[in-house]
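Folding follows sequence. Below is one example:
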Amino acid sequence: MYGEIIHSSLVLLYNTHTQESHEHFLVLFSFHLLILSLDHSQQDFVYEGILPLSGLSFRTISLDRGVSHSPHVFETSSPMMESKVFICASGTELQQWLSHLEDRRYKSMTPPMSPSQCALSYLLPCDEHWKREELKTYLMQAPIGQWEGSPIQHMGQPGCISMVHIANTQKQGHQKRLMVLFPHDVLFLSVDSKSLTLRYEGRLPRHGIKAVERSALPGRMEFELMGELVEPLLITCAHQEDYWNWIFHLQQTETATLL
């Protein structure tokens, strides 16, 4: 699924808060870093996450003197997720990881990238249930350009997701956006013309907006997002299922706020 394996090894994942460490298996692919924990009782691996290399940075660090571990440590960090600290068995293993990671990160950021190398191009338009579910998973691990605020993983689990057209009711024209519902926010992302990259376009707090139905007619499924601190936005959906899902969930938020 993720292509060729470039490098892999057993490492310790170190928790900087508890100062505990646990064995994990790292697998480096062409564009992603896969993290697996070990279930010794079942003699099996457990999926712990996958990180896109294009959004990561790497550096060697030193742990506190009181920590009785190998000194060969590196840290991965990204605006999109919390940093992770890995302890290698030797200096040679550390240098191998840093070399491979930096090489693959550079190549993952080098254009042009073909649609065959990017899962996003297969998931858009998200007009089928399986595509929407896969897209939700993809968003939680994909690099998003110009991201602002806390990591996307801190926003909770995504609910509704669909491509919509958004127009500021005070101005002319409209823009195509990927609209994603989280427990406390509505997230807006733009997608490039080849469906290869995502860019952050903003978010709205759910408690500060309300959805007003405008038209549920085929070919004109529109509702308006309104709020005291938000200019009215006209949202146009491509599918009736998306329209009613958004109306239901956003009006549920209004009811909960009133209660």
